[in-house]
Amino acid sequence: MKPILETTTTGENDEASQESKGCFECCIKCLGGVPYASLLATILCFSGVSLFCGCGHVALTKVERIVSLYFSLNSGDHALLTDVIQMMQYVIYGIASFFFLYGIILLAEGFYTTSAVKEIHGEFKTTVCGRCISGMFVFLTYVLGVAWLGVFGFSAIPVFIYYNMRSTCQTIDNPPANLTEVIEEICVDVRQYGIIPWNASPGKACGSTLTTICHTSEFDLSYHLFIVACAGAGATVIALIHFLMILSANWAYLKDACKMQIYQDLKTKEEQELHDIHASRSKERLNSYT
User: Fold this and answer.
1) How many helices (H) does the chain have, and how many strands (E)?
2) Angle at the Cα of 17 (from 14 to 18), degrees rounded to 5?
3) d(C-alpha 82, C-alpha 73), whole Å
């Protein structure tokens, strides 16, 4: 009786090992279908757009407050700036919503392409519609990448303005030995940047007033928020370039997979025709013998 028990236990262990091996192979097969490059690009795109939209929205609100308190005492002078800032904030809402949806679509397209190329889903095959959609995504991502290069350059403008103001404040706080100007005559005129019209009053800040502005929490917070927003725009550009490379490669893979699919269909058809010919000949020989 004892050897029989040992044999039964061994058989159960073999079945358990086969089941565990099957689960392991299934997990490896599923992990092989994950488009890691698209997943990384999606995370980078979401992070960049989130930083740009969130930080840019708050920073624009701080800019409006700084201008209304120190550079344009008359509300009518900066009414246009207020309207532009509100419009840009609404645009930010649209950008965030669009790229959230677009990132998910590109990630889904990455899953589709990976499954089509690697044939993970068995009889899953590429279609003409799928290849056209992949080509459309390549074109659209290229256009968005060029547009975000412009957004990245535009987001660097407020960083440049804030940097100049901060450098001027540092000069006032720690004047160099060869400084010939009076500190109160060192000014920053925001009218030259087109933020407010030339008839706005006072339009500029000088000396101690300028240092007071630089030491406020609104100035420091908005300056760093604009830097982060600019970095987010740069990250989005990198993500779109990454997406463009992935989509181009996937489109080429789909094109090759289509050719291979046509070849396999022709080969299967020829094999079936040869099989039918052999079967008919065998049937004819059998009838001739009988």
Assistant:
1) 6, 2
2) 85
3) 13
**What is the spatial distance between Cα 16 and Cα 41, in angstroms, rounded to a whole number?**
40
Query: Which H helix or E strand runs over 246?
Result: helix 217-289
Calculate the alpha carbon distances from 199 to 77, 188, 205 in Å. Answer: 8, 16, 15
How does pLDDT run across 221-275, given as a tens digit for each residue?
999 999 999 999 999 999 999 999 888 887 777 666 566 666 566 667 777 767 7
Give the pair of three-digit tokens for residue 226: 């604009």
Identify any residues that bridge with 204 across adjacent strands, giving them in sequence order. 189
Residues in the chain: 290
Residue type, 210: L
pTM confidence score: 0.75
Q: How far apart are CA 112 and CA 22, in angstroms?
A: 24
Question: What DSSP letter does each residue of the chain carry, written as one string?
Answer: -HHHHHHHHHHHHHHHHHHHHHHHHHHHHHHHTS-HHHHHHHHHHHHHHHHHHHHHHHHHHHHHHHIIIIIB-STTTTHHHHHHHHHHHHHHHHHHHHHHHHHHHHHHHHHHHHHHHHTTTSS----HHHHHHHHHHHHHHHHHHHHHHHHHHHHHHHHHHHHHHHHHHHHHHS--TT--S-GGG-EEEGGGGTSS-TT-SB-EEEHHHHHHHHTSHHHHHHHHHHHHHHHHHHHHHHHHHHHHHHHHHHHHHHHHHHHHHHHHHHHHHHHHHHHHHHHHHHHHHHHHH-
Q: Contact, 106 vs 222, CB < 8 A?
A: no
pLDDT in tens, 168-200: 888 888 877 776 667 778 888 888 888 888 888
